[in-house]
Design a protein that fits this description.
The chain is of the alpha/beta class. The protein is built from 11 helices and 21 strands. Helix 5 packs across helix 6 and helix 8 runs parallel beside helix 9. The structure holds adenosine monophosphate (AMP) and zinc ion (ZN).
Length: 431
């Protein structure tokens, strides 16, 4: 079953011809932004000389920090009145990475999601419970629009409120759900606590994404719910969900090549790698107007799966995400850089030099523990002051990353002193 058979099954030569044409249009748009205007000039790039997809390799990369430094509008490529929506990457306050959309971008994104869902066998008969956050995060609204476009009845349940989720599922006979893998397992436990077996509900398909997870977790979700789970990959910088999606064959995710040009690079040498080899995924927009990004380093590690998929789609597949080439952690669906936590801690005068970030999974949910050494032992006799400091640190961390830490304040010298590269993060989660 196809959403748009012609676009999804274009032969490679036609697909690449289309990519080149769309790349040239996109480069023109990008060159008009203050960010790329300057970047192209500095690198002496003449976009009119781009006559083959290979020429893309001459362009510099775009990084997440570039989005922050050009905040709020240094990358906008259209007249501001054409912009109809913004989203922001999860987690950070202040200068987060902001993404803008024109109506064209929103329409195309909905189509991209509708196409992805159709590839898994979803039809207008499905009742689609969307358990991703609605708001600045792209997961909620992005998937919502695509499922609605396809004709499903969408239940915009958003995250949390487990008992309500269960009631909605039972009363409206939910057949498909969009959910993080960790929440899918947690919800299954909660449903069993209510005396109901999740496998006996009507949910037959789950779209799992927004955080890294193993094949083992995927199988657990499939068994406990008696459903087919499909891997769904996306990121705000690239629209949101729908960038790459598993089809009914569940053997890698088709990355929609009429929306993005795929490159895999070695994160150390920055050289391009051939299909089959694992490296960092770099994507170039070719179907966005408000804010096209050229050679964006996603930092996600994967490979292009060689060969063609039996489903007939010609867009290449990427393997499940193996990790990241930076230190970004995803905690409860929120992107967290350890350096952000460090910045908060180091601004607090009572905090000493050593700290540790510990991540655990409790009842399938992420827990962030922070162990922080104080500068002196002075506060330890004074419960009130200690509690005050504890609240202050917690509040600052929550304000920055929206994740509530479990905080432990320690005497100086309690944590193992580093004898080389400090080990600040201990991730005990089994994913
Ligand atoms: P955000 O921009 O907040 O949506 O976060 C995007 C990041 O979430 C990606 O760069 C990946 O690191 C991660 N992510 C999204 N989908 C998946 C997936 N299916 N498997 C593993 N990681 C994912
Ligand atoms: Zn396929």
């Amino acid at each position: 079953m196809f959403w748009n058979e012609k676009s999804e099954t274009l032969d490679r030569a036609d697909l690449e011809k289309l990519q080149l044409q769309k790349l040239r249009e996109t480069l023109k748009l990008a060159a008009g932004t203050s960010f790329y205007g300057q970047l192209f000039a500095e690198n002496k790039i003449d976009i009119s000389k781009v006559t083959s997809l290979d020429h893309l390799k001459d362009f510099p990369f775009t990084k997440k920090t570039d989005l922050r430094t050009s905040y709020p509008d240094g990358m906008i490529a259209v007249d501001k009145k054409e912009i109809v929506r913004m989203h922001a990457s999860s987690g950070t306050t202040g200068k987060s990475t902001v993404i803008f959309y024109t109506q064209h971008d929103i329409d195309e994104w909905s189509d991209q999601v509708a196409r992805s869902l159709t590839a898994t066998g979803i039809t207008p008969n499905d009742v689609f419970q969307n358990m991703m956050g609605y708001g600045l995060f792209t997961g909620g609204l992005g998937m919502h629009l695509g499922a609605e476009r396809l004709g499903c009845m969408v239940i915009p349940a958003s995250t949390g409120n487990t008992l309500k989720q269960i009631q909605l599922m039972e009363d409206f006979h939910t057949t498909a759900m969009h959910i993080t893998p960790s929440y899918a397992l947690h919800l299954a436990d909660s449903i069993r606590e209510q005396g109901v077996d999740p496998a006996e509900l009507n949910v037959r398909k789950a779209f799992l994404g927004a955080e890294p997870y193993s094949v083992g977790v995927k199988h657990k979700v499939e068994e406990q719910w008696n459903l087919d789970a499909y891997n769904s990959y996306g990121m705000s910088e690239m629209n949101g969900p729908g960038v790459a999606f598993e089809c009914e064959y569940k053997d890698g995710m088709h990355l929609w090549e009429d929306f993005y040009i795929i490159e895999i690079i070695d994160p150390e040498t920055l050289e391009n790698l051939p299909d089959g080899e694992e490296g960092e995924l770099v994507l170039t927009h070719i179907n966005r107007r408000a804010m096209p990004l050229i050679r964006y380093r996603t930092r996600d590690l994967t490979r292009v799966i060689p060969g063609v998929c039996p489903c007939g789609r010609t867009h290449r597949r990427i393997d499940r995400i193996k990790g990241r080439s930076d230190d970004m952690l995803i905690v409860g669906g929120v992107n967290v850089f350890p350096s952000q936590i460090e910045t908060v801690l180091m601004k607090i005068p009572e905090v000493g030099n050593n700290y540790q970030i510990l991540l655990n999974r409790v009842n399938n949910l992420d827990r962030l523990n922070l162990k922080v050494e104080l500068k002196t032992n002075d506060l330890f006799g004074n419960e009130n002051e200690l509690r005050c400091l504890q609240s202050k640190i917690s509040a600052e961390v929550i304000a920055l990353i929206t994740v509530t830490p479990r905080l432990e304040l320690l005497s100086p010298g309690t944590l193992p002193a580093s004898t080389g590269k400090a080990v600040r993060v201990i991730d005990n989660r089994e994913i």
